[in-house]
Design brief:
The structure holds 2 protein chains of 2 kinds. By secondary structure, chain A is of the alpha+beta class. Chain A has 15 helices and 21 strands. Chain A has a 7-stranded mixed β-sheet with strand order 8-9-10-1-11-19-12, with helices on one face. A 6-stranded mixed β-sheet of chain A has the order 14-18-13-17-15-16. Chain A has a 4-stranded antiparallel β-sheet with strand order 4-5-7-6, covered by helices on one side. In chain A, strand 2 and strand 3 form a beta hairpin. Chain B is 75% helix and 0% strand. Chain B is mainly alpha-helical. Chain B has a single domain, classed as MetI-like (MetI-like fold, Orthogonal Bundle). Classes of the chains: A alpha+beta, B mainly alpha. Chains A and B meet through helix 6, helix 8, helix 10 and strand 16 of A and loops of B.
Chain lengths: 527, 277
């Protein structure tokens, strides 16, 4: 019976799907929340979240990724990988034009990867590190020559991760300072029109979009509303139709979900894989001894943090890698990650390591920096302060503005313990290696190895694990990597964040991309 | 003193204000007896309503006791209010006294400086200062003092201007008293009553500024205060009203009490002013 029902469901979905395919209405304006306001629109220089919400509508990548992980051809029509994995040939789409009318060619791809993403993008140097050169035998063919096979590279061609930018507007300029940053010209379904600081960004339909009939929407407006309760109100009265990355606080999302016209999903984040964590300064300060870091990880009640601060949306971390990597058999659960926290065990670790409690029960004092991305993180900091107090680590909280905090952690290394979250992305090479590799100690670059953890043995494993073509061998290598990291813990993972998308059911067609809110919305329409 | 109290007592509301303030002071002083635990301590089920799960006024999103936060926060609010006021009165007296007493260029210079501070909207200026110095109890006190002293300076200058030509001051000059002594020992005591009145009102303003800063997330993250409680609870106002309602009421009552006291002090210290009105 059950089976029959589910078969029926599938048939019904197919039928409705087919109906829906004919029912897309053209036209209309989509207002959605962009929170906070982006610092610039240069998505080829910064991976900052709000930029990701806006720019993939303007710039495109070679591919998009569907929810099931499959690649959707966008600027590339297809690719072909040689048997040794060291040559990847992309067939590029013909007839694509930049918003200023110039044709898109393989030279743009070559320039973007070699001169822009490999040089100034935070993650590009890692994603494309094996790319030695890109040949352009004709205007619509790009041949990537790799030093070593890099299968993970194929997961990083989305518009958010690797936007293809116009060569003719950047060549010969300082890429970081070029005016393109705030006057973007892309190939995407929407054209940049204006950015009213403090209010909104407006994108209009690209009438000459390469795919006939797309996009459906006439206009997309990204609204900046600094106050959380005002954002919720805007969602409730239909002023905005879409809000991702917790622009609507979980507590409100839980309430709004009960309404007929508003729904909530955790889909659209599988390429992002966000992980809440604590970075430690392993070179100076209170946490140089790995035993303390293990004790801290052992003491934290991850379940409590998820349930009280994030309203149940999240999964306790069990290792340096997210459990989402189980799909590729890379994840392995490790010790020192108890779900509910074990303060006795943590105290025992510290006692054994020789950190004595004084008369007030204090073993050591330190400052905890908190990612300045909103109230939830402050609550997390307040929780940690209490939890650490119980094992004799007296913390003082420090909460600064974004630039000061970034500078403190990633420029000056002037911190001891920092609550943060990182995107682990679709492959550990893209999102996880940057925490731990010695080559990722890059002073002044954000969201890399700020712990300054350096372990030659781990470096070798990371290096060989990255390009390992044999799945079983790769699993074994990553298991060893996770064992080393569970022992040394330069970073303590807290929990896998489950971000929410809160949306008005009127908006359809934007939920199929694994990029979620960082997608192009080219098939979005209003019902 | 007896006479002062008689006059003060005539204003019933002021007596009530004093009563409330003493209650709050008592509450702050005995916070550790009633709630010996750190107010940040996660003591029970998160988001319990008032009278639920043993919470008098409910608990917040992490399970911290709202009532404990209020009694401990009272100490912070009053202390910040008091210290910030003292600091700003000190700065204000310094500027006002010199400007009023010496007049001329000194007056011009000091008053121009005062005006620079007066032209900047005070709350925004306070936000700026705290943001630059990064939030801590020290930076908050400094910020509040820096934005509130110009009023005092103006007042003190006016008093000094009117007092410096009186006979008793001239008498002091003739017997060869130094300027500093005349200012501190003779003129200043004579203009204390308006300073006390303005000071009492400034305590209330200081508490409001501190709460406002904490509400915006610029409070000291390590110290419990009413503004912090409201700021932490505001996102859930619709599902857990008690988290920010009770600290809000605490601020309201305290500021009201201090304002009533200020009125009463004004009546008691400047009786003629009152009769004229």
């Amino acid at each position: 019976m059950k089976k029959m029902l589910s078969t029926l469901c599938v048939v019904a979905t197919m039928a409705f799907g087919a109906v829906a395919a004919y029912a897309q209405n053209s036209g209309g304006t989509l207002s959605f929340l962009v929170q906070p306001e982006p610092p610039t629109l240069a998505s080829y220089v910064s991976t900052s979240g709000p930029i990701g919400l806006v720019m993939p509508k303007v710039y495109e990548g070679l591919f998009d990724y569907a929810n099931d992980g499959s690649m959707v051809p966008i600027l590339a029509e297809s690719y072909d990988m040689s048997a040794d994995g060291k040559t990847v040939t992309f067939k590029l789409r013909k007839g694509v034009k930049w918003h200023d009318g110039k044709p898109f060619t393989s030279a743009d791809v070559q320039f973007t990867i070699m001169e822009v993403l490999k040089k100034v993008h935070p993650r590009g140097p890692n994603s494309f590190r094996e790319v030695e050169e890109i040949l352009t035998p004709d205007a619509h063919t790009a041949v990537f020559k790799l030093k070593k096979p890099a299968p993970y590279m194929m997961r990083s061609f989305s518009a958010y991760e690797s936007p293809i930018v116009p060569k003719h507007l950047l060549e010969g300029q300082d890429v970081k300072a070029a005016p393109l940053a705030n006057k973007p010209v892309g190939t995407g379904p929407f054209k940049f029109v204006e950015w009213k600081k403090g209010q909104y960004i407006r994108l209009d339909k690209n009438e000459n979009y390469w795919q006939e009939g797309l996009p459906y929407l006439d206009r997309i407006v990204g609204r900046f509303i600094p106050d959380a309760s005002t954002r919720t109100a805007a969602m409730e009265n239909g002023e905005v139709l879409y809000a991702a990355y917790n622009a609507i606080p979980n507590i409100d999302a839980v309430r709004l979900k009960d309404r007929d016209d508003i729904d909530v999903t955790t889909k659209g984040y599988s390429m992002i894989n966000p992980m809440a964590l604590i970075e430690f300064n392993t070179k100076e300060g209170a946490f140089v001894d790995p035993a303390i870091r293990r004790a801290i990880s052992t003491a934290i009640d991850r379940r409590f943090m998820i349930d009280t601060i994030f309203f149940g949306y999240g999964k306790p971390a069990t290792s340096a890698l997210s459990s989402n990597f189980s799909a590729t058999n890379l994840h392995a659960a490790m010790p020192n990650y108890p779900e509910k926290g074990d303060k006795d065990a943590a105290n025992a670790i510290l006692d054994k390591a020789g950190f004595k409690k004084d008369a007030n029960g204090v073993r050591m004092k330190a400052v905890l920096d908190i990612i300045p991305y909103g109230e939830d993180w402050r609550r997390a900091g307040e929780y940690l302060k209490q939890a650490m107090g119980d094992i004799g680590i007296e913390l003082e909280l420090r909460y600064e503005d974004v630039p000061t905090w970034l500078k403190r952690v990633y420029h000056n290394y002037d911190f001891e313990m920092n609550v943060n979250y990182f995107y682990q992305l679709p492959d550990p090479v893209l999102g996880v290696h940057r925490h731990y590799g010695t080559d990722q100690i890059r002073k002044g670059t954000h969201f890399v190895n700020s712990s300054r953890y350096s372990n030659p043995k781990l470096d070798a494993l990371l290096d060989s694990g990255a390009g390992e073509p044999d799945a079983a061998k790769r699993t074994a290598k990553y298991k060893e990597i996770q064992q080393i990291l569970a022992e040394d813990m330069p970073v303590v993972n807290l929990f896998e964040l489950e971000f929410l998308v809160v949306y008005n059911t009127k908006l359809k067609g934007v939920y199929d991309s694994a990029m979620g809110a960082y997608g192009s919305f080219r098939e979005g329409y209003l019902d | 003193m007896a006479e002062f109290w008689t006059r003060y007592r005539r204003n019933r509301a002021a007596v009530l204000g004093l009563g409330i303030l003493f209650t709050i002071l008592f509450m702050a002083a005995t916070a550790h007896l009633f709630y010996p635990e750190d107010p940040f301590r996660l003591v029970g089920r998160p988001l319990s309503g008032p009278f639920e799960n043993g919470f008098l006024l409910g608990s917040d999103s992490l399970g911290r006791d709202v009532a404990s936060g209020i009694v401990h926060g009272a100490k912070t609010s009053l202390l910040i209010g008091l210290i910030a006021t003292l600091v700003s009165i000190f700065i204000g007296i310094f500027f006002g006294a010199f400007a009023g007493y010496f007049g001329g260029r000194v007056d011009d210079l000091l008053m121009r400086i005062t005006e620079i501070f007066q032209t900047i909207p005070s709350f925004i200026f306070a936000i700026l200062l705290v943001a630059i110095m990064k939030p801590s109890i020290f930076s908050i006190v400094i910020a509040i003092a820096v934005v509130s002293w110009p009023g005092v300076a103006r007042l003190v200058r006016g008093e000094f201007l009117s007092l410096k030509n009186r006979e008793f001051v001239q008498a002091c000059h003739t017997i060869g008293m130094s300027d500093l002594r005349v200012m501190l020992r003779e003129i200043l005591p004579n203009c204390l009553s308006p300073i006390i009145v303005i000071g009492s009102l400034m305590v209330a303003t200081a508490i409001l500024i501190e709460s406002g800063l904490a509400f915006l997330g610029l409070g000291d993250p390590n110290i419990m205060s009413w503004g912090f409680q409201i700021g932490a609870g505001r996102t859930m106002l619709r599902s857990a009203w008690w988290v920010c309602t009770f600290p809000g009421i605490a601020i309201l009552i305290t500021v009201l009490a201090i304002n009533l006291i200020g009125e009463g002090l004004n009546d008691a210290l400047n009786p003629r002013l009152k009769e004229r009105q």
